[in-house]
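Dear support,

We are seeing what looks like truncated structure output for some complexes. This example has two components. We would appreciate it if you could run it in full and send us the complete token output so we can diff it against ours.
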Amino acid sequence: AQSVTQLDSQVPVFEEAPVELRCNYSSSVSVYLFWYVQYPNQGLQLLLKYLSGSTLVESINGFEAEFNKSQTSFHLRKPSVHISDTAEYFCAVRDMGNTGKLIFGQGTTLQVKP
Amino acid sequence: DAEITQSPRHKITETGRQVTLACHQTWNHNNMFWYRQDLGHGLRLIHYSYGVQDTNKGEVSDGYSVSRSNTEDLPLTLESAASSQTSVYFCASSESTRDEQYFGPGTRLTVT
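Here is the complete output from our reference environment:
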């Protein structure tokens, strides 16, 4: 079985400051890793994913995440945040088998202040 | 454009009533999922389906049922609504078990 822990429920940060949202997972099998973003009153959208290859993955809007197998982590980072990044962010894992089921963390609310 | 829709977007119902939440996708995806979102719990899987006539229980399936009579729809039924089922419900679909899931806009359900 897998589990996901997002270590911070809320992260307040000023605009243009860097941010890191932490995600740790537990699994007895190899997994795929995802970050989803949820803007207010909307559904979830995929931000980025790690399936294989380079352990550093990037999104089109400046976020990046690094898969660290030894520390079982997949932290999300952005060097300079914008007001529009205010949202809830979910880390999720899926085993490499064919079940397709996602296991989500509790979510982290990123609050960007002007 | 292909999409996934949910209806209603908001629903208030009374304890003990049967409620059905609709999910419709035009992606022609085989896999469909229902999650509930609660503060402090993230999203938890209720039921899922890999194709027509296939349904499976997820992590929190008690009190819920689904049926899959066609590719496009996976309605979620609460047989006898309870206050503990007040939540936001999300439907998702994916082309295969290896692909990303696409989420609907959600249904906010309040059971009074």
